[in-house]
Write a structure and sequence with these properties.
Layout (H helix, E strand, L loop, with lengths): L7 H33 L7 H44 L5 H13 L6 H15 L6 E3 L1 H12 L1 E4 L2 E6 L4 E7 L4 H5 L6 E5 L2 E2 H4 L1 H7 L7 E8 L2 E8 L1 E4 L3 E6 L2 E6 L4 H16 L5 E4 L8 H11 L3 E8 L4 E7 L8 E5 L6 H13 L2 E4 L7 E7 L5 E10 L15 E2 L4 H5 L9 H13 L3
Parallel strand pairs: 11-12, 12-15, 15-16, 16-19
Antiparallel strand pairs: 1-18, 2-9, 3-4, 4-5, 5-6, 5-7, 7-8, 10-11, 13-14, 13-18, 17-18
Helix pairs in contact: 1-2, 9-10, 10-11
Length: 447
Amino acid sequence: MWADENSPIFLIELKAVILLEEKNINSQNEVDKEVEALEESTPVESSKEESENKSKIKKTGKMAKLIAVSFGVIAIILISSLLSISIYRWLAPSPFEKLTEIDSLVRKYYSGDIDDKILDDALATAYMRAINDKYGFYKNTEDSVAVENSFEGNTTGIGVTVFNDEKNNSLTVFRVDEGSPAHKAGIKPYDMITAIDGKTVKEVGFSESVNSIKREIGQKAKITLLRGGKDLQLEITYEEFTRQCVYYEVIENYGYVCITAFNEATALQFDKAYKFLTEQKVKGFIFDVRDNGGGTVDSVCKILDTLVGECDLITIVYADGSKKVSAKSDANKCDLPMVVLTNEATASASELFAANLRDMAKATLIGNNTYGKGVVQRTYFLKDESCIRFTVGEFFPAGGKGFNGKGLAPDFEVSFTQEELQNRYTLGGSDPYIKKALERLALFYYE
């Protein structure tokens, strides 16, 4: 990069050339003096050998001058480039210069009031959106609490999973989280919530009813249930509780384990399920991670450590090209046959789970191609306890094959019919995914 003749860089280059020339002249003078000194001390009748020495000294001087000039030119080019880059960066406009100008004008001429807290949050939100990271975000101080709780597995609500039961005009309960307010109040799976605070589900609709059931800690709700043809009235107080993410049962001598999310609580809940099912002498495992959107790397790796042998469970490749093995598994493992159920909403940590069981424990994948999220995010909590999250690298399972952007293809593809999809929460053992899993596990003992 060459500078303009009027620029300070040009002057520096020119000075460097002058100094270099002076140095080269001095060097040549010293060589000439050495030759002269040699001539003065040598008799007129000097030998042929001595003449050759003089010639060698002159050639050495010329070579030294050539080398000095070459290094000097290279040094000037490097110094010029570095100075040009530094000055360019110094003179280049800041990415926030426009924003500063806008802020100055608004604060000087705007006739309304400015809420700096709202403005601060809006700018942070816009920044994180502008970096075009589909998994990145900014959360203000209040919403950051929910982010931190999600890592730990804590949540607020009544602790039920419901589905739209159009036939009975109700929110029919599919699951009840153990230890939740709903569990304490006696709500059971397949209870039908027909009204909330006197407003019926038929009257306000499914979506509005679900929204109305979401409340803050300490608030209460009056729930009307239909169970066995009888109406029940319950009052539930909202509180924080640990979300249940692992559900398990024995199906035809096989352990069925449904994992809905990966967080700090998941690993403990899985240990409880795994201990119970192995004590029941199950012949194999069905791990259901359909609709599991992922979670923390630590939790999924703790579970994998129980199931697979010694390996690098996850390797992260960062933006600068560096690699890090984030978690390893020891030699202990489960030797029973395994099947993993997946669908299009199986993503991130649950894909890592499925990939490692496939590669390291010869598990069979049944269902649909997964989502394809093989990148890892990092969350930073800021000084005011707000937070940002953005992608820092791509991760790879033990087998080394990444799945970001393409997902994991199942070994056997299975899908719901339209009728099965509408009734998926009441299918039980008739679920076609589970039926296919049982079929494959049974074959294991005949192959």
